[in-house]
Amino acid sequence: MPRGAKERRAAILRLADTSGLTSVDELSAAFGVTASTIRRDLAQLQAAGQLARTYGGAMPLRHEASVRQRNGEAAEAKHAIARWACDQVRPGETILLDSGSTTAALARELAHRDDDLTVVTTSFTVLHELANADLRVECLGGALRQLSQGFVGPLTEAALERRTFDRAFLGADGVTAEHGICEADLEQTRLKELMARRADHVYVLVHADKLGQRPFRAHAPLSPNWTLVTDDSANPSSTAPFHARGLNLVVATPASAVAG
């Protein structure tokens, strides 16, 4: 039986990896410590990016990649998606950008504009891209999640509740027609749902490799009123489930986009 906090947390990681979803009560009984001690352990492991919290327990992360690692993936696809998304933004609008490498690509496109836009974001990476842009840039602060370089938590949510937006652009680790947006952390999926409620138009930006994928167990449902934007490497088998559910899906190409 692990005695120290470090050994106990290592054992929790091993248990979560072999058993999947693990509850606070089960862990408390297994290690002979209080539920509050286990919650502190889980909070520490989550902050270190080693575990994902769930309601009442925890689950293993499936090797969540950092934003820096994801920046080099599907660069051409992300650029096409970002160009299409940038074209949807009208002068004078107030828009919201989620964290993620594709929304960072959108920020790079927006950085060239000077038409009285206001960009609000939860992303440290987006802030960096827009640091010298001739735009009004606002950040919804909170707790910085290192892997995603995004702000989450009650402070972020409280700031979000005081704003409305013309458009919100969301990222995702994966997306399925059945379960919706997939992320490694429930705080992230909850935040995406709150973002969507505050915007007139909602876009989910995902390159084709993420369609039909749910690498983690935290989800935010897709609304039929949202627009799912992907790239032209998407094949019919990956887009068909979204069409079957009546979702608006846009395929962005390097020069244009085709709605389907």
Could you characterize the architecture of this molecule?
Keywords: Transcription, Transcription regulation. InterPro entries: Carb_Metab_HTH_regulators, DeoR-like_C, DeoR_HTH, NagB/RpiA_transferase-like, WH-like_DNA-bd_sf, WH_DNA-bd_sf. This is DeoR/GlpR transcriptional regulator. GO terms for molecular function: DNA-binding transcription factor activity. Pfam families: DeoRC, HTH_DeoR. With 260 residues, this protein is of the alpha/beta class. The chain has 2 domains: 56 residues, Arc Repressor Mutant, subunit A (Orthogonal Bundle); 192 residues, Rossmann fold, CATH 3.40.50. The protein contains 10 helices and 16 strands. The strands form 4 sheets. An 8-stranded mixed sheet has the order 6-5-4-9-12-14-15-16, with helices on both faces. Strands 1-3-2 form a 3-stranded antiparallel sheet. Strand 2 and strand 3 form a beta hairpin. The longest helix has 15 residues. The protein starts with a helix and ends with a strand.
Jot down its keywords.
260 residues; alpha/beta; DeoR_HTH; WH_DNA-bd_sf; transcription; DNA-binding transcription factor activity; transcription regulation
* Contiguous uncertain segments of 5+ residues: none
Q: What is the count of helical runs?
A: 10
CATH class of the largest domain, please? Alpha Beta
Shape: globular
With strands numbered from the N-terminus, the spatial order across the biggest sheet is 6-5-4-9-12-14-15-16
Please name the CATH topology of the largest domain.
Rossmann fold
From the 3D coordinates, which CATH architecture of the largest domain would you assign?
A: 3-Layer(aba) Sandwich
The string of secondary-structure elements, in order, is HEHHEEHHEHEHEEEHEEEHEEEHEE
* Class computed from helices, strands and strand pairing: alpha/beta
The strand count comes to 16
Q: Which percent range fits the helix content?
A: 25-40%
Number of domains: 2
Q: Tell me the strand percentage band.
A: 15-25%
Q: What number is the mean pLDDT?
A: 85
- Give the termini distance in whole angstroms: 57 Å
| Rg over C-alpha atoms, rounded to the nearest angstrom | 19 Å
Main sheet attributes: strand count, strand direction, barrel closure: 8 strands, mixed
